């Protein structure tokens, strides 16, 4: 592919009329590998893509997109682990956002130190084009076709939005005749109102550069430290642990329990054997009221693999709970443990009297104080 493509009509692929979408994937990969610029759908309208192994293609991509001076071109990665290859110093908040929002409509802008990560291995010309202002932009698409193309590429894809004036919300048709594009893959109309949120990571925090599908509240939750407590039915032990933990952290941070999320901490509980929607036991409600907490509005929830994966710290009440969780999500082992630091089960008070509940709550509080010290909260 050369600058002749600026005057040549782009190859058009209609996925709806494709006998085998895999053939279209291979055609797109071949076009990109030869230095072409390809228009393809993401979950946030249509993008243009070029291979980072071809400086000419990336230069043309930048020109077609009309990217402002100093603004990076988003690089398509497969997930958080690959993001760390590009940005080894990615902050904890950045890792949480990548783990919880990707694949999806989120672009992370991160500082790029010279020679750091995969960016340092790019040809100098390409590096200056994708990261001209000392920042990298990283994205991870959920769109199957785009992911299929990225998986087969020998290098990575730089991406960009067409310049102002191209109504990508109309779909691929809006790109017909766009100069410099070698191939358009028509996946149908774009999803109206879906735009990527662009977030800049600075220090340990973040700020929104461009508002999109993921709003500020969702970002705050995704970037928070998540503590998850798990028992059987999520009506006594784990909700008591959740409420007591919130009280301890709120007192330490000088805020109300309801304000912990604003401080970057989310505390949750769930059960391994519940259909969900059940209130906390009356004994648990009374014990927590006496401790200054509240379980009146609690409703049980069933623990899911997704919830386990999103947790930063998971505390199970018994070894049976822990083993059940790890059998489904073995990758949680580094952050999943018994609540009791000494490796003992927390006995189930269900069906017992108020005094047993009071003793259980006291034991849970002592365990929590030790665990919170261990994790630095």
What is the third-level CATH name, the topology of the largest domain? DHBP synthase
CATH class of the largest domain: Alpha Beta
Net shape: elongated
**Category by helix and strand content:** alpha/beta
How does the major sheet shape up? 10 strands, mixed
What is the H-and-E element order? Answer: EHEEHEHHEHEHEEEEHEHEHHEHEH
Q: Alpha-carbon distance between the termini? A: 55 Å
Give keywords.
single chain, alpha/beta, 4-stranded parallel sheet
Could you walk me through the main structural features you see in this protein, from its secondary elements to its overall organization?
This is protein-tyrosine-phosphatase. InterPro entries: DHBP_synth_RibB-like_a/b_dom, LMW_PTPase, Ptyr_pPase, Ptyr_pPase_sf, Sua5-like_dom, Tyr_phospatase_low_mol_wt. GO terms for molecular function: double-stranded RNA binding; protein tyrosine phosphatase activity. Its EC number is 3.1.3.48. The protein has about 375 residues and is of the alpha/beta class. It has two domains: about 5-215, DHBP synthase; about 225-375, Rossmann fold (3-Layer(aba) Sandwich), CATH 3.40.50. It contains twelve helices and 14 strands. It has helices at about 20-35, 55-65, 80-85, 90-100, 125-130, 145-150, 215-220, 235-255, 280-290, 305-310, 320-330, 355-375, and strands at about 10-15, 40, 45-50, 75, 105-110, 135-140, 155-160, 185, 195-200, 205-210, 225-230, 265-270, 315, 335-340. It has a ten-stranded mixed β-sheet, sandwiched between helices. It has a four-stranded parallel β-sheet with strand order 12-11-13-14. Strand 11, helix 8 (about 235-255) and strand 12 (about 265-270) form a beta-alpha-beta unit. The protein is elongated and about 80 Å long.
């Amino acid at each position: 592919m050369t600058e002749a493509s600026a005057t040549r009509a782009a190859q058009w692929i209609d996925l709806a009329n494709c006998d085998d979408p895999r053939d279209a994937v291979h055609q797109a990969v071949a076009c990109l590998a030869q230095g072409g610029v390809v228009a393809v759908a993401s979950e946030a309208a249509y993008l243009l893509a070029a291979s980072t192994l071809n400086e000419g293609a990336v230069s043309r991509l930048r020109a077609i997109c009309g990217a402002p001076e100093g603004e990076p071109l988003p690089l398509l990665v497969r997930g958080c682990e690959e993001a760390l290859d590009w940005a080894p110093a990615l902050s904890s908040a950045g890792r949480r956002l990548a783990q919880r929002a990707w694949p999806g409509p989120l672009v992370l802008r991160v500082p790029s130190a010279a020679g750091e990560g995969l960016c340092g291995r790019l040809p100098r010309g390409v590096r200056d084009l994708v990261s001209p202002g000392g920042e990298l932009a990283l994205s991870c698409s959920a769109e199957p076709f785009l992911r299929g193309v990225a998986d087969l590429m020998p290098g990575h894809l730089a991406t960009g939005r067409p310049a102002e004036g191209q109504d990508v919300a109309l779909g691929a048709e809006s790109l017909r005749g766009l100069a410099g594009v070698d191939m358009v893959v028509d996946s149908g109309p774009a999803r109206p109102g879906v735009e990527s949120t662009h977030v800049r990571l600075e220090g340990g925090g973040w700020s929104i550069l461009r508002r999109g599908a993921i709003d500020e509240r969702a970002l705050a939750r995704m970037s928070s430290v998540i503590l998850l407590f798990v028992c059987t039915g999520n009506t006594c032990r784990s909700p008591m642990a959740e409420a007591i933990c919130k009280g301890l952290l709120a007192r330490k941070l000088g805020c109300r329990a309801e304000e912990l999320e604003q401080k970057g901490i989310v505390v949750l509980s769930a059960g391994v054997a519940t259909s969900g929607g059940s209130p906390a036991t009356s004994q648990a409600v009374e014990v927590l009221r006496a401790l200054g907490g509240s379980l009146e509005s609690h409703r049980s929830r069933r623990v899911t693999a997704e919830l386990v994966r999103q947790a930063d710290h998971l505390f199970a009440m018994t070894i049976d709970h822990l083993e059940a969780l790890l059998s489904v999500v073995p990758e949680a082992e580094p952050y999943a443990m018994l609540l009791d630091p000494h490796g003992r089960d927390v006995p189930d008070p269900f069906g017992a009297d108020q005094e047993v509940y009071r003793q259980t709550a006291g034991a849970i509080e002592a365990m929590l104080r030790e665990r919170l010290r261990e994790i630095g909260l």
